[in-house]
């Protein structure tokens, strides 16, 4: 059955809108640095786009695009063809190619050189060890099977099977002992106990005491069962505490210092500043974002009826792609600003008094306020940061549920967390509060919460249990 004209028009519109909507959602979700990278990529791939901030000089005339035969001409369905897909005749000008080469050169210059890895360092050390060649070869094989913390998680029997040459279990154990003598101490251990024992030397204070505690009482130390250790070892509590202090100086992850930290630099998308009226002004930080426009030269070429049809079709598609990008970026700016303003208005007390005054807030509330779908709010706040007088925060930081106090007032879960920290901070360290007792203390403050909630937030805040917090 054929669609009538109106149905066909609606179908065609949906098909045309789908790519635009997808691109718009993708652009909205990008944080500022990723947006700038996306724009740079589009500038390099779409000759129709120009950055008005780069130069005020007139645009250079593009080199003509060679005519194509009918067989090679792109079809109407190839809506997002790249410039390269039009063949050798469609080359960028020499100036554009030079500019692209400079761009890539600058990018390579700004790339950090790869630091020496744990495996590189250990393999270098193995090369200087005095041993038989087959032992050294298997030691290097072990080194490259260590995890990032320096542990050997594979069984020696499995490594022997995977090794290219025949080697006995005795030789494999000798190679492992060689690896375990490398620096940093503790490398090549198969478990935490072995890792810590490898780090003990004859010069280690209380070496014999530490050796016994590590060998037999690691679990007791983790659970703070010091009286049990005292009973089983005959050591005094003072001696046990002194040994545990020495234990804290050993490294449970000796290889971790080689792992790149890749510090994430947060670039805020927005800034919030107080006004003389006592409220807050929200504005976008986009001074360094390229200001895009469509090349006038290519627009004139499109209007030239004498121009090569293949060239005109290419230009038309690239102009359409450029328009979609520009509209998506503008839509992102508008939506992000509206959402951020609504959030800041709701969380004014957070900025006035501090994080402990945060209000419960759901994304649906903001969606209703700015008249968008809740998924739009979710994309708008995803991985976005705002600079405020109280510091830089993720926009998601301002969302969260809460509970109702005895007076009927809504309180955010962040406020509960702050109060939990306060209660634990004031407890008797020799008789710390259980989770049930913390529930009672919060209830007396007008904050009724369940014990499982206290346990959940205590763990989220990395606060040990009452037994582990106990000081003897």
In terms of quaternary structure, the protein is single chain
Structural class: alpha+beta
Structure summary, number of beta strands: 8
Q: Order of strands in the sheet with the most strands?
A: 3-2-5-6
Low-confidence stretches: 60-101, 103-114
Our count of helices gives: 21
Query: Topology as H/E string?
Result: HHEHHHHHHHHHHEEEHHHHHEEEEHHHH
Mean pLDDT, nearest integer?
A: 78
* Morphology call: flat
What Rg, in angstroms, do the CA atoms define?
Answer: 33 Å
Which percent bin holds the helix content?
40-55%
End-to-end C-alpha gap: 84 Å
Main beta-sheet annotation: 4 strands, mixed
Task: Tell me the β content.
Answer: 5-15%
Could you characterize the architecture of this molecule?
The protein has 472 residues and is of the alpha+beta class. Among the domains are: 118-258, no CATH class; 270-287 and 325-398, no CATH class; 402-469, Homeodomain-like (Arc Repressor Mutant, subunit A), CATH 1.10.10. The protein contains 21 helices and eight strands. The chain has helices at residues 5-29, 32-45, 94-109, 118-126, 133-143, 156-162, 169-179, 192-198, 207-216, 218-222, 226-233, 237-247, 296-303, 309-346, 348-353, 363-370, 374-381, 413-425, 435-444, 451-460, 466-469; strands spanning 49-51, 270-274, 280-284, 292-294, 385-388, 391-394, 402-404, 410-412. Strand 7 (402-404) and strand 8 (410-412) form a beta hairpin. Mean pLDDT is 78; it is low at 60-101 and 103-114.
